[in-house]
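To assess whether the prediction recovers the assembly geometry, we first specified each molecular entity separately, as shown.
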Amino acid sequence: MQQIKQDFPPASRRLRLGFVGGGQGALIGEVHANGARLSNRWDIVAGALSSNPQRAQASGKAWMLDDDRIYSDYQDMAQKEAARADGIEAVSIVTPNHLHAPIAKAFMDVGIDIISDKPLTTSLEEAQSLAKAQARSGVVFGVTYAYSAHIMVRQAQAMVRRGDLGDIRQIHVEYFQDWAMNVTDQGENAPWRLDVAKNGPSFTVGDIGTHAEHLARFVSGLSIEAVRADFHVTGKPKALEDTAFMQLSFAGDVPGTLMVSQAMAGSQCGLRLRVCGTKASLEWHQEQPEILHLRAIGAAEQIISRGHDAGMIADTQRLLRMPRGHPEALTDAWANLYLELAVAVQARREGRALPKDLLAYPTIADGVEGMRFVEAAIVSNATDAWVFCA
Amino acid sequence: MQQIKQDFPPASRRLRLGFVGGGQGALIGEVHANGARLSNRWDIVAGALSSNPQRAQASGKAWMLDDDRIYSDYQDMAQKEAARADGIEAVSIVTPNHLHAPIAKAFMDVGIDIISDKPLTTSLEEAQSLAKAQARSGVVFGVTYAYSAHIMVRQAQAMVRRGDLGDIRQIHVEYFQDWAMNVTDQGENAPWRLDVAKNGPSFTVGDIGTHAEHLARFVSGLSIEAVRADFHVTGKPKALEDTAFMQLSFAGDVPGTLMVSQAMAGSQCGLRLRVCGTKASLEWHQEQPEILHLRAIGAAEQIISRGHDAGMIADTQRLLRMPRGHPEALTDAWANLYLELAVAVQARREGRALPKDLLAYPTIADGVEGMRFVEAAIVSNATDAWVFCA
Amino acid sequence: MQQIKQDFPPASRRLRLGFVGGGQGALIGEVHANGARLSNRWDIVAGALSSNPQRAQASGKAWMLDDDRIYSDYQDMAQKEAARADGIEAVSIVTPNHLHAPIAKAFMDVGIDIISDKPLTTSLEEAQSLAKAQARSGVVFGVTYAYSAHIMVRQAQAMVRRGDLGDIRQIHVEYFQDWAMNVTDQGENAPWRLDVAKNGPSFTVGDIGTHAEHLARFVSGLSIEAVRADFHVTGKPKALEDTAFMQLSFAGDVPGTLMVSQAMAGSQCGLRLRVCGTKASLEWHQEQPEILHLRAIGAAEQIISRGHDAGMIADTQRLLRMPRGHPEALTDAWANLYLELAVAVQARREGRALPKDLLAYPTIADGVEGMRFVEAAIVSNATDAWVFCA
Amino acid sequence: MQQIKQDFPPASRRLRLGFVGGGQGALIGEVHANGARLSNRWDIVAGALSSNPQRAQASGKAWMLDDDRIYSDYQDMAQKEAARADGIEAVSIVTPNHLHAPIAKAFMDVGIDIISDKPLTTSLEEAQSLAKAQARSGVVFGVTYAYSAHIMVRQAQAMVRRGDLGDIRQIHVEYFQDWAMNVTDQGENAPWRLDVAKNGPSFTVGDIGTHAEHLARFVSGLSIEAVRADFHVTGKPKALEDTAFMQLSFAGDVPGTLMVSQAMAGSQCGLRLRVCGTKASLEWHQEQPEILHLRAIGAAEQIISRGHDAGMIADTQRLLRMPRGHPEALTDAWANLYLELAVAVQARREGRALPKDLLAYPTIADGVEGMRFVEAAIVSNATDAWVFCA
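The predicted structure of the complete assembly is given in tokenized form:
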């Protein structure tokens, strides 16, 4: 067994967490909350779970919040929580995209740390403005690209870093779903993701393309320097793209591709990454998150699974929740994220420095990078030309 | 989408849970606790996490228990918790096998509900005595055969019940691990599972054979009526078996096999069930818990995954924690178990009847059945003959 | 690349091959013939493809045989071919089981080499008598357990021999089909395999159990010393078993299991072998014949595929027909068998000795061993006791 | 079982086949020859297996050709074979690309039918000229895109045609190998495929890109109307591309992607096709040729394997060589191709018309289409723009 470089500092109590958004019917709020619960580092104690007062009440009760900590206005919540001795120490923002920035600013202003869903904002400009505000405020700011918190994704990143693949030569990432095949932007059941005002000007590239973009950068360690994108509608007619195919140029002139669709029949969450070097290639699928495929030239394929002593990066051990052979999955990845965020929030509040490389949660810089990628893709599609992301 | 028969009754607060066993270094305690946390129905507030006072203290603090609720004696804990207005409502027992029964009795006596690890006891006689005590006390008693709480195992059971397989004609279950390959019962690092006094007279059949036995019965709905077992030591020498192969006779003269080993090189948690009928066969693997293979005569194989509208049993929907394509895994199964146990404990305390078939957690009857199976296997191995489990 | 120990001696012409059985509607004759054709070492020039003269004619013409070499009586064929200068040098026997021995004897008597389908005969006694006749005659006698001629099965055998697995500790083999689920022995469409007179006293153990038995012995290098078998009918009622489950004892007290059924819904040709040692386990599936799974303790699983330089046994190279990544399959295995048999027949006719270990085709000794296994299983099932195969 | 529309006309003798190219060390010649042998419709009787006389002799003897039919000059062979009463009826051309056209013309001129390896020529212009010559001569002309002759690829095509997928909305094809990772075009071991004069101006797009292009067109039934390609060198430096990524526009504005590399570490023959419609998506991998994945919206994934009664297209039955569950593979696909070509050659020679849709082997039109695709990709890469293939 390799040595784990360092363990997380111990906690003497759980931190206090609030939510904006995530009320009844909003799936992703529950996913965040389960991550926080499983991490055992947070108590969820307050929420503006909906801007609709009745729904906010019902949702808050379902989450077993105290009556006086159920809000329907996030500004009200920010003020009141900041004023309490037992006020929340961080807030999770799980609203439509256009609200991420104003809500984050309201809580930053009162010194509360931020956990925001992705994509960060509806435009690069708004993202950059938010990043400046975050820098001024000094708060912790995590963006929930949760796939990067799977242990085997961390393992993949570590294998690339230690040179198991040789020099990186090509990178392919794809993310295919089918839920938007028969979805349109007409009618009252149209999802907010197809409403430009709430969602921003890209549907699928913003929603899942940013996951693919982040994952490729996270594992390879290479930035995306230029994009050549074609947007398509392959499902029912809609104003925004539900499909996009791209050529990418990563740092060091490493070519790559990115394919996303939310109208590919029969796909559920087909996020798949291939990083290919001069010695070997790595492959990871979101739907089988416990397995890495390592294919080296002239060698048998290896199926690396979480928990094998041989080959596992020691630094992932501090995130282990289940012994080998007992599968972890997506809630575990969310819990890893909330665990690392708790460590960061606690350290900030205690004025304690953390060792470099102890934490790997996505930050606001990753959120900004995502918006830069989305805008470059939009321009490339419109101009039929390569566009730099720099 | 099919109709879900009924949902769980809502909860207005989390229940209070204590632990006996599970201190530092004891993996399974953390697994139970994570299930409880993720279920969002329990607060872990007390524990006798070790009988060693120092370790009990350190473990209790790591679990963020209040000082006055960290115990090192389970009888002390039972008395004090029963006397508190905010005392625990249930206790999880995660000690070596020989302590399950005395601890359970101590907490039953003061009206606290029981969640016990498996195998239930070290002998059938002790299990039957415990079951009588439970019947007298009326407490809820869950046994944590957690694999049966995976949604796709519930789905498998439901598919058998509605006749998707036709009449059941053969059943095969196997559970292979390799951690005991190089383990012996000599020396001070010998695990308690190889100590007959603490573990009981069977190592592997008791430890993982009972999981296999429960899973086969749970999905098929058929009891095991007779066993023909051969025990082996295929890893380093040890007094108890680390491997066993069996022929089984299920109710209705359905033949089957059961194979278990903890010394099968390269296996991690290879629990695999095949239930085969006149129309189709079902297969489920613990290491890929989100998938069922359905193979019908004259049809293409179907890979049924959690979340497909088509084919999923509606009644599993109330356990869903992640949307389709986003994998759940073993912590989710544990959370399902702790969720159902919370519903049961709450109902008992509120004097409320629950609809039949709402809950499917394993009960003390399953625990007794497991011990009956273990003893039949031991006798069969010793006598080289079929032995009835009745 | 490792050194191949030696290559096959070159051939200056194809050998002349005849068939008994295999007429229209008889699948297995075509399978044999395709193996012979693909091997490029045989010309099929004569045949008694059916005992029905009309069918023999039609089948012979479909195989493009010359008119004077189409027979309907195997004794006639043996005499006439032996008398020709260009007579056949070997005969393939693909009839129902009860005819294997008399036909083989007829051709042996005139010095023609024998390629017989399996099981060798309908009884052990008949097999032993045939083996004596073969020994007297000195003819080459191959038995077509074709699965053992897959390159990756040869690779598996070589890996066991060179110690990749450590000491062998358990062996599991299973073969599941479903074609007999709805088959009965009543009515005029009842297959000859359910007619004791033509088939012998065991249906499934004789038909596919012998494949499983041979494969396990071939790869492990261990003989089966004792059997404890239970026979079942899990498909429609029939007098002979369509399912059997066994405990095995291999040489050196290595325990194992064997499971066969031709009434397991949804299985096609599910022949699967697991050989497990102190260091690693190997797994091979007939339906994915190009892949070996190697699972070592504390290491990532390896997927070894035909053609990888790393790990492939050099001696398999002489059988390669396709470059790496281009799949071979069952016809290739048959061609390997017919290729090795051609080498053996040519050597006998040229009076040339071949290097030990050059050829690995199954011989009449393997055929006899198969019958010994079948009879032991029958007795064990009848007596509910372990039976020695010695 | 569905009705097979019609069977192949019977053959009363094997046709006579010659080879140009394919001498010792040339892998692909043996692959063609094995296909011809297994088809049982051809006797290989003549060859100019090398232009080097000594090698031609040695190779011819290894193939057991008669001395007077071993040539080292293809023009000599064309003349002499045409003059013989028992001369060859077709020739297989397995030389470097620049020789395909002149050799084909030499044999066409004397009325011999042509089976050519791919890519058809080194330029579109040469391909078009050859097509005109073929049209004038009236010979049968097959191009060996052999992957399209796998039964499950035929099945995929038939499923698209009968509407199982709904309207086609996106198509993705990739073909990854790694053998050129460390190959350069310098030194005397440089392969001819990196020599522009022998190979033409594209390495990987010509070599395996055309396989991918043909397969996508064959299964989807849609032509490629425009290409946007980027060429890369991801292995050791070389003048021609070893990697290319493309956006495609299929007929009806169906978008798609094509990715090829011969320098993707750890890939062997990773040819994978995904055809996605409004109702379902189909996926096929060359390395597991017996399986189709069908993923429909809201349904369980189906694993369709060759031989299932349910779902299999009846017209593929006439190509079956093995019963269900007994895998076929690439040699079977080659044999299917040689079988269909034999039917075509025999029909031409007998002046017999064949039913439309009886045969599906790739023709010279497919070869021309491939060259059009290669040239469009080259131009697109050079101009960084979409290029029409029309």
